[in-house]
Amino acid sequence: MALKLYNTLTRQDEEFTPLDPEGKVVSFYSCGPTVYDYAHIGNFRSFLNADLLRRTLELLGYDVIHVMNITDVGHLTLDDVEGGEDKMEAASKRLLEAKKSGALPEGVQVDPNDPMAIAEFYSEAFMEDARTLGLRIAHDVDEHPERMPRPTNYIPQMISMVESLVARGHAYVAEDGVVYFDVRSYPQYGALSGNTIDSLKEGLGGRIQSEHQQVKKDPADFMLWKPDPKHLMRWASPWGEGYPGWHLECSVMAESLLGDLVPGEKGMIDLHSGGEDNIFPHHECEIAQSCCSTGQPQFARHWFHTRHLIVEGQKMSKSKGNFFTVRDLLSRGATPAAIRLELTRTHYRVNANFTFQGLKDAQRQIDRWIKMKTHLQENIDSSLDVDGPGPLQRGLDEFIEALGNDLNIAGAIGSLNEAVSAARGLTVIPADAGKATCRAELDALMKMDSVLGVMDLEQDAGSNEEDGGIDDLINQRLEARQRKDFQEADRIRDDLLQMGIEIKDGPEGTTWRR
After folding, report:
1. Is the pTM of this model over 0.90?
2. Digit-coded pLDDT (tens) for 445-456
3. Residues 6+ apart with CB under 8 A from 443
4. Which run of H or of E encompasses 322?
5. Residue 472, pLDDT score
6. Side-chain-side CA neighbours of residue 471 (13 Å)
7. Which residue, of 16, 310, 402, 438, has the fewest CB within 10 Å?
8. Cα distance between residue 495 and residue 87, in whole Å
């Protein structure tokens, strides 16, 4: 079945076809986390939608070569202008201040003066969270560690690309020693985001503050390499000790790891994904660098972007108390499967509203699917009293058809739910060659879950972890009451109620029920 996807570059749905002349191998690059802190659930919505797309392609029979970077240097705190500081240095300062005040985050045991150690700590935390939520890319690294590359391992290739861009007249060394990309040398700059260079110049004009920005040929020109002998992370280069630009890193890693998969198409890949905040400037700059370096008319043929996540109807913010990591939700009793479903069941091109009620509803759906899975497993050698194919096999066709329509996840889940309802009403009978077999129905159910990725997160273990998380919250509430912090105790009680947990205080202690 054909897969139609919305392409950010062309602003229309397109039938997906890979570069591979045999139509089997798909090259897929995803922008991953910058490891200066724990990834939050808004980040994971983008990563999970990329995983959903990958799983859909694999269900359709493609062999997906998927690469996701882990940014450990060069990502400045101000993405749209050449300003701010490297996020890894910012993390170092943040943790150093926290250490001085005795307020290092729980579990963080790392030297704040060592940005590589910080990157390694948060990289491992990200990998743990990614595995918890079932991202296939996180399991690829066991056999293919290069598929989650770190920019710091590709510095020579970055220097080589910058040299190529300078030699081709697409980059220049400014008076401050910084190497910039000359956006005027690439007429297609702005095609992805819809920005024109003149509009960018007008918009950036009032924001140029630092001296190094004044020496650019054009305000929209962006950094490729910055000499900085005081930077905590720096490497030798023809332009002095310094560090690469964030945009440069992804171009180099995508080309190095995916750009040679198809003979004659060097430097081109099939798919590139990220959050919508990556469209400009990051992905726009990637296209310019890559095309000007390789001479190809395209970099990624198809661009896939996930829209933002809000929480309980509001923008996620630490000051509002609605900023959550995966670990925060697990500590509140949510299962990995429920988190995954809640973050993916809204279409990727629509802003999603994460709610604790949504987590509860997601868990109920998953429990219902697992009950059907168990029922079919227990009767694996029997049949259902319906002429085959059964409702789940028919539902699989509808499930795939929905996904083929720009990953219509709501339609796919609807097809699964209808099929499960129909199968629940059927009587199990001894094996009958003319009837739908439980084995075939189970196979159809598991193919649908191969995309959703929730039943394979070991729900039995997850349920036990959920109960443990609830007990932990109840103990925290008890401790708050004992120290007469009734505001905190009430907050924990309200959190439990949002999770669907009713608590009751009695002479023998606190009990709870769903």
Report:
1. no
2. 999 999 999 998
3. none
4. none
5. 79
6. 6
7. 310
8. 32
